[in-house]
């Protein structure tokens, strides 16, 4: 196995096409195919399945690519540290529930460590996908929450996927609403105050159980439920429909604008927000930097 072969495999995966990958790598297509076949033979695996429709990444190929990306990223960081020159693009990926402080920290990291070339991914996604991304090393780090209701289920999923959870902070439940919502005048909101308004929550796909819900108190009865896939849509509906969502209360006016406000929710509950990492692998220097920036962002 060579670093060049790893780069070949990653490029083919990124392009989804052998011909396009060969063009990007400035290599003849037969040579590229032969190199990948040699790698597959060396490890006794099939990285790509091939058909008339093209190529697809196999399950074992998906696992192999996770390690390949990690090795290439570490090589980039080592070269940059000792020579001042990186080889290829700086790569980094975060998977998270929809928290503005996570995005804010991501932006700070990119500005500080992105360098001349980079490929950074910020995945605000479903809870199950966060766990899956980090366990398969598609993301270096994930951010999600635990509380008394979901803790047993989520911690079991983390253990089954060889992931650890580290607390960032404890948050009391808040309600995000538009600043013109009638509830905006209240100092503290009670659950019964929310009854007339639409409740907004994030879609959780095939794992749409209460335990994977991004919003705490998801089992509370609501006559009007709206389910969305992205933060922009949720915020637009908070404003346009006088809706609400239950959250941590941490909000960035710079990123989310001045029209969304957070009000304390008068319930006996909490959110333990933290990050997840693979237990089998030491975090990269870039991941450590990101964790430090996360902590600074929260304090700010």
Account of the protein in words:
With 300 residues, the protein is an alpha/beta fold. Among the domains are: 1-87, Arc Repressor Mutant, subunit A; 171-269, Periplasmic binding protein-like II (D-Maltodextrin-Binding Protein, domain 2). The chain has 10 helices and 12 strands. It has helices at residues 3-15, 18-25, 29-43, 59-83, 100-113, 127-135, 151-160, 231-240, 253-256, 285-299, and strands spanning 48-51, 54-57, 90-96, 118-124, 141-146, 163-171, 174-178, 199-202, 225-228, 245-247, 260-264, 271-278. A 5-stranded mixed beta sheet has the order 4-3-5-12-6, sandwiched between helices. A 3-stranded antiparallel beta sheet has the order 10-7-11. It is elongated, with a radius of gyration of 22 Å.
Cα end-to-end separation: 46 Å
Strand content: 15-25%
User: How confident overall, as mean pLDDT?
Assistant: 88
Question: What is the CATH level 1 assignment of the domain at 171-269?
Answer: Alpha Beta
At CATH level 3, the topology of the domain at 171-269 is D-Maltodextrin-Binding Protein, domain 2
Instruction: Extract low-pLDDT stretches.
Output: none
- One letter per element, helices H and strands E, the order comes to HHHEEHEHEHEHEEEEHEHEEH
Instruction: Examine the secondary-structure arrangement and name the CATH architecture of the domain at 171-269.
Output: 3-Layer(aba) Sandwich
User: CATH superfamily of the domain at 171-269, called what?
Assistant: Periplasmic binding protein-like II
Shape, principal axes of CA atoms: elongated
Radius of gyration: 22 Å
Determine the structural class based on helices, strands and strand pairing.
alpha/beta
Describe the biggest sheet? Answer: 5 strands, mixed
Biggest sheet strand line-up: 4-3-5-12-6
Q: Please tally the β strands and state the result.
A: 12
Number of helices: 10
């Amino acid at each position: 196995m060579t670093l060049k072969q790893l780069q070949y495999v990653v490029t083919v995966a990124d392009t989804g096409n052998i011909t396009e990958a060969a063009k990007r790598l400035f290599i003849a297509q037969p040579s590229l195919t032969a190199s990948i076949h040699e790698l597959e033979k060396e490890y006794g695996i099939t990285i790509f399945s091939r058909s008339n429709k093209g190529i697809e990444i196999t399950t074992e190929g998906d696992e192999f690519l996770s390690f390949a990306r990690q090795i290439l990223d570490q090589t980039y960081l080592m070269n940059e540290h000792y020579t001042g020159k990186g080889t290829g693009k700086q790569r980094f990926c975060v998977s998270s529930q929809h928290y503005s402080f996570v995005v804010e920290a991501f932006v700070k990291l990119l500005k500080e460590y992105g360098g001349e070339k980079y490929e950074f991914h910020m995945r605000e996604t479903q809870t199950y996908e966060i766990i899956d991304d980090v366990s398969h090393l598609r993301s270096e780090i994930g951010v999600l929450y635990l509380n008394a209701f979901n803790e047993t289920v989520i911690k079991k999923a983390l253990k089954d996927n060889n992931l650890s959870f580290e607390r960032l902070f404890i948050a009391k439940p808040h309600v995000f609403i538009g600043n013109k919502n009638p509830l905006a005048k209240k100092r503290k909101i009670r659950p019964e105050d929310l009854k007339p308004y639409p409740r907004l929550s994030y879609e959780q796909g095939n794992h749409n159980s209460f335990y994977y819900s991004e919003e705490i108190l998801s089992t509370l009865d609501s006559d009007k439920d709206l389910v969305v896939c992205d933060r922009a849509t949720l915020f637009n509906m908070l404003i346009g429909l006088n809706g609400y969502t239950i959250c941590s209360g941490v909000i960035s006016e710079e990123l989310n604008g001045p029209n969304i406000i957070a009000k304390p929710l008068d319930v006996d509950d909490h959110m333990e927000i933290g990050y997840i990492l693979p237990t089998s692998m030491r975090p990269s220097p870039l991941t450590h930097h990101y964790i430090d920036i996360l902590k600074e962002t929260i304090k700010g």
